[in-house]
Amino acid sequence: MVGELRYREFRVPLGPGLHAYPDELIRQRVGHDGHPEYQIRWLILRRSDDGDEGSTQVDCKAEHILLWMSNDEIYANCHKMLGEDGQVIGPSQESAGEAGALDKSVLGEMETDVKSLIQRALRQLEECVGAIPPAPLLHTVHVLSAYASIEPLTGVFKDPRVQDLLMHMLSSPDYQMRWSAGRMIQALASHDAGTRTEILLSLSQQEAIEKHLDFDSRCALLALFAQATLSEHPMSFEGIQLPQVPGRLLFSLVKRYLHATSLLDQLNDSTAEAGAPNNSAPEELIGERSRLELEFSMAMGSLISELVQAMRWDRASSRQGSLARPACSIFQPHLADSGLGLPVAQAQPTFRRSRRYRPRSEFASGNTYALYVRDTLQPGMRVRMLDDYEEISAGDEGEFRQSNSGVPPVQVLWESTGRTYWVHWHMLEILGFEEDIENVVAGDEYQGAMSSGALGVALPSWRWKPMTELYAVPYALPEDEDAEESEHLTQAEWWELLFFIKKLDVPDHQEVIQILQENLDGEILDDELLAELAVPMELAQDLLLALPQRLDDSALRDLLNCHVYRKYGPEALAGQLAYPPLLEAQQDALLLQAQGQPQESDDAARAEAKEPKTQCSTTPLQHLVEGYGPAGKILLDLERALSSEGAQASEVKPLLLQLQRQPQPFLMLMQSLDMPASNRALHLTALRILMQLVDFPEALLLPWHEAMDACMACLRSPNADREVLQELILFLHRLASASRDYAVVLNQLGARDAISKALEKHLGKLELAQELRDMVFKCEKHAHLYRKLTTNILGGCIQMVLGQIEDHRRTHQPINIPFFDVFLRYLCQGSSVEVKEDKCWEKVEVSSNPHRASRLTDRNPKTYWESNGSAGSHAITLRMRQGILVRQLTLLVASEDSSYMPARVVVFGGDSTNSLNTELTSVNVMPAASRVILLENLNRFWPVIQIRIKRCQQGGINTRIRGVEVLGPKPTFWPVFREQLCRHTRLFYMVRAQAWSQDISEDRRNLLHLSSRLNGALRQEQDFADRFLPDEEAAQALGKTCWEALVSPLVQNITSPDEAGISPLGWLLDQYLECREAAHNPQSRAAAFSSRVRRLTHLLVHVEPCEAPPPVVATPRPSRNRSHDWSSLATRGLPSSIMRNLTRCWRAVVEEQVNKFLTSYWQDDDFVPRYCEHFHKLQKSSSELFGPRAAFLLALQNGCAGALLRLPFLKAAHVSEQFSRHIDQRIQGSRMGGARGMEMLAQLQRCLETVLVFSGLEIATTFEHYYQHYMADRLLGVGPSWLEGAVLEQIGPCFPNRLPQQMLQTLNTSEELQHQFHVYQLQRLDQALLKLDNTEKKIQVGHKASGQKNEKEEEKEAGVEAAAEVVEKEEEEEEENENEDLYYEGAMPEVSVLVLSPSCWPISSISHLLSPRTCLPSYLRGTLNRYSNFYNKSQSHPGLERGLQRRLQWTWLGRAELQFGDQTLHVSTVQMWLLLYLNDLKAVSVQRLLELSGLSPDVLNPAIGPLTSSRGPLDLQEQKDAPGGVLKIRDDSEEPRPRRGNVWLIPPKTYLKAEDEEGQNLEKRRNLLNCLIVRVLKAHGDEGLHIDQLVCLVLEAWQKGPCPPRDLVSSLGQGSTCSSTDVLSCILHLLGKGTVRRHDDRPQVLSYAVPVTVMEPHTESLNPGSSGPNPPLTFHTLQIRSRGVPYASCTATQTFSTFR
């Protein structure tokens, strides 16, 4: 076969387990852009997810998609179809070689033989007289069939004599002759699609072919067409009940279809010939192509029009498709309650009921009105409340949403409340759809309100976007149309109008052409000029007013539904002015829908029967046609003409012609057979009329097939009258005898089984019933043929429509096919509405009380069926209609039934009641349930379904069932069309995405053009959806598929790194960041470049993620990948994958940018401010590129974290120290207040935002270490403030051990202890005063009694007093220390004691005091001693905290305020002691101070420095006998200084250095912990350890030894302390290096992974030029999170005694 190139390794995912493979090159053409295009057949196969070729399931009737592809697309997707020279291997190159297999002389002899055989066959056919053809004729035809199978001889068989021969053979009554003709046609049609279509078309287009073909001949030709098109469009419509189309209409559809496909082939062939050498002039080719396009559009319009009528879509009751879809983006999911978010400024208009809906006052009872509302109301209609009901008031309006069998049953979205609420049927008044509602707001009032501004600001259109959301839609909106162009019809609109002009008769056609010529300067219009005509809108409106009067009913119905009429036609009701008869017919049809529906219950039938009793004189037929006006009068005239003796054909034929134009009365007459059996007289009257109509040939052209359902319903009715049934069988037998097409229709409807049951019921006493059954049975194969043919035609039309959509995408040319939107409207109908299948069963039977069985289906929850029998024997049997697949089976119960309520229900299925052996489900019913779903989404048809109640609640015997609901398959084509539309869309855009990706991979600069490419594609899909897709669900499905197929693969490709590790998008973003400063000039090239990048990124992130599948690590790909296996994208075609890939790319760009910055500037003094500025530039760039999306801000932080992780340990420690120092400086600088303080606060805030990146990283440990030291210096040197708590609240997660938070907590605890100490002092004072009072009283009493005692008593008393004196001395010695300051004559200072915990405060041993007694004056020692006693007692009886008893150790840490003249000196505790010591001395040496305090020079010398400065009160004099100098008070006369104000003399802060010993100790500790972790895991082997157990073992080994050595741990100094956080940090570090691994099944278990060389701890030089013995160590992420807690700051002030 030509071009059979199969490359199954290239696959494109179309769905779960569904892939497309390029299979064959079909044809070639020249596209609109002048470049060649190739049509490739893509096979659709199911393949397992594991990609095993052996599991591929290939069906012999595999579906396929024909896709036109450009050279670039073939090069990128299926490049093996290219030859060695890089050109596509065209079909002509192989066909030439294949044709060369036959010699020219041999081929000429064969052509001569074929011509002679044709002449012989024609002669033998003329000589054939009898019905049986002679054997020589059959032999001749057999030889011709053999010659026809040779492809080079196809041209000979195009002789018109061959067609005459085939026509005579097909018209032959002999079956063998027709079979031989079929063999020849199959042989000719076996070569290619073009030959097949040409042969079938030539046969079907012959004049008066229908007159030559009888039923069998027509079926033979239809069978050939069905067989020929079976493999072309193997589309399945399973679950959808296709209408019964008779053979006559099917044959007409075949002709239309063949004509359209042949023109489409000619179009493709004409473009192929345009690229051939020595072709005609370009003008001629363009004119020929324009002619073919017009003919194809007209042919497709005729096909769609006739197909819509055959499918009965034009008579559908639902008008959902006519409603306009709101214009909004189809690529962004919309919430149900989303709106414009604008204030409601417009007055809400009030509506009144459309005249086509009946009010409640016209009904005799509320029950009848409720039934009418229930049968008429459709989702989307507006309703008005008639009565007050709970929250809803009378007069409120809303939109009907849905209904069920609950109480109340109706759900309405009410405008008054803004939400849905359930009400009853009889409470509603139907207003109708919005286009049917009459607005009562007067036009002049509206205009006046607009002119006066009373209506407020008008709502903006969807084109308007707020300034903050310039990218509300992913595509740029098109420019406004030219004013001149907007005044004329588009080509599509003109061709749709031209379609109806061509439908006119010759006189009317000439008259319309004359009107066009008069309005277009009298130019003579031929067919070529008509196609290119520019028609003004005014002329189009005039034509639309003139056309309805000249069109027949079928064309007029199409005109009223077309786009051009809805847009430019009169605003009144369609046809009201132009064609009143059709308007009446439409009204009749609507009334028929409202009244002629079959009633589901006997109650409804009785309710309807109550109304006409007032007119007893009317006949049943007169009662039927009441309210139908002139349309109903036709039936009365027809009955009168047929009832007269010897019915005259002259009277009947005009009525039949009228019924052909307006078939609604005829259909109403036939549908009356579906009314309840109580209408016996009406049934007999209708059957008598129908029986007589069959005798007229004109009557066979009526749409009998559209109402055959009513005949079958009457035939199946269990209550049908025998006489009615007999008349029905006689009528059906006569109709089937007159036209066997209707016997086929009866077979499709299952008439054979229905007739058999009727014969069984009436014991075979039905005349002609068996004959009718046999006649229907003989049409079984024809019924199968009709169903298959209907499926093929519909599938072929859908494929052609999809092909036109594909051409529209590829060429960007408008779709000019008439009724294209109508066809799509009916295909998409039902996408937004859940359709209920009310007639799913034929009969409902119960185990007992059958007279109450109707209550199961009356939809009244207050009625019920109650069983009568033994427990467990109750059952409900549903006899299902043929082919109904149950979508949902629901049982309605009520908890108020108590013991009657079912408790356990079992459902069985079978082919009959005797074979109910398959258990489908078993359900336990809860006591509070009301709706019990028994079955859902069955995939098999069960003729009989039985519901058995096995047990009742509370052990009850009988049961009560409130109702049974059965939902059948969704009877719409939307699921099938959605699948096909999404498949074609996905394949088209995935192929295009790969081609664009190939261009980008070859040159990254092509990425700048991606925005415009995507913009054009997305805008085109949006325009197509707005124009042709009526439902929101359909538009959203198209947008979602387009986005997933086009944007997801593109993002995957442009974010995948190449061999150098750089992705195209990463390169582009990096370039954007580099030229960001230069882009501020709008005239520069950098500004244009940045604008393109921003448009691209905003477009890519338009759709927010809906779900997050597991991330997939991108792997480098070759720089030139000409073909790509799309299997990797099978599970990544989601918006979430776009966001994931984009954020991953942005993270990589940020990481590289930050890493470059750190490498260049980490040693600079202003590193932190520059880093903060760089971070905020990246943050601003992220907002510019991707908008305020949290995912990209998180990616920015992760990128910064990744750059920090790449730093060696000591470099990272240096960075963390710099940040801690910067924060400390900004916090201290903010205390100065004023503008400078505000500036410091702003800098601090920017730094804190940057520091948040440290959270979860190992660098957070060193950052906490330095921050802890600097925070301690601030709190003790300056004092706490509110800013400390605010900072910790913001960057709290950056402290893994929460040490700063604990420091603030200890300050709060100290403040509370200070308050308690104050109370304690007051209590002691009260006790002392009370004791003094008691002592005075005792002395007074002793003086009075001293004269009365003898000497012996005095001696005893003296002994007692001596003992008491000893005890008092001991107590006084204990209290002596506390009362040292009681006799201090000066002002007592205010002392505050801070109790600092060494677990969180960095307190060194050199800060400890040996004894406060030797260093502080007496008036301070007493306070400290009292506090010590208080603290010891509080530990013995804890109040605030309970735990181990602690002791106080006084330190030199702290601060003080001293009064020195008029100055207030702010000094440290060491400086305070030094100055107070000089109160009693004139001078003191530094050496003496060192001896007295026991402090080291490192502590004392920094304290002396500020005191001896120019602002200090002391002078330092050098003396030979005093090392270090002598301190004395500075004389004011020597150097004048300020006498007033505050003087800050606290020693300046000393900042740490990462390269010092302390930083090296931190690195040693980390390395030692790594060694311990590795050794512990190696000791436990492959089994591993739980992470908690590992932490405990490492901490235990760290504290006890023997590894690491104790001396090595002790050498670390302060770094010797270790916590669980440090161990976890090292564990994650080793996990990142790969030294430690997790178990797959138990991630919490760790084990040793690879052997590593454990080396001794070392320090790393910070000199970039030096290289250490070991490779640099990096940080890895910590999974430790903590939260900052705000604490109250202590603001107490301490004041000491006056200093001279």
Explain this structure to me?
- This protein has 57 helices and 31 strands.
- By secondary structure, the chain is of the alpha+beta class.
- A 5-stranded antiparallel beta sheet has the order 9-8-7-6-10, with no helix packed on it.
- A hairpin with a 5-residue loop joins strand 8 and strand 9.
- The longest helix is centred in the last third of the chain and has 47 residues, at 1299-1345.
Chart the SSEs and their pairings.
Elements: E1 12-15, E2 18-30, E3 36-46, E4 63-70, H1 71-77, H2 91-99, H3 104-127, H4 135-148, H5 160-170, H6 175-188, H7 193-204, H8 209-212, H9 215-230, H10 247-274, H11 282-310, E5 351-352, H12 366-376, E6 382-385, E7 397-403, E8 410-414, E9 420-423, E10 428-432, E11 438-439, H13 443-452, H14 483-486, H15 491-503, H16 506-519, H17 527-531, H18 537-546, H19 553-561, H20 563-568, H21 580-595, H22 602-609, H23 620-624, H24 629-643, H25 649-661, H26 664-671, H27 680-693, H28 708-716, H29 722-738, H30 740-748, H31 751-761, H32 769-778, H33 780-811, H34 820-828, E12 841-846, E13 865-866, E14 874-880, E15 888-892, E16 902-910, E17 918-924, E18 931-936, E19 944-952, E20 960-961, E21 963-967, H35 974-1002, H36 1010-1028, H37 1032-1054, H38 1064-1074, H39 1085-1100, H40 1135-1161, H41 1167-1186, H42 1190-1205, H43 1209-1229, H44 1234-1251, H45 1259-1277, H46 1282-1291, H47 1299-1345, H48 1351-1376, H49 1412-1415, H50 1418-1436, E22 1455-1460, E23 1463-1468, H51 1469-1477, E24 1483-1485, H52 1486-1493, H53 1497-1507, E25 1514-1519, E26 1522-1529, E27 1541-1544, ...
Parallel strand pairs: 22-31, 23-27
Antiparallel strand pairs: 1-2, 2-3, 3-4, 5-11, 6-7, 6-10, 7-8, 8-9, 12-14, 13-20, 14-19, 15-18, 15-21, 16-17, 16-19, 22-23, 24-26, 25-26, 28-30, 29-30
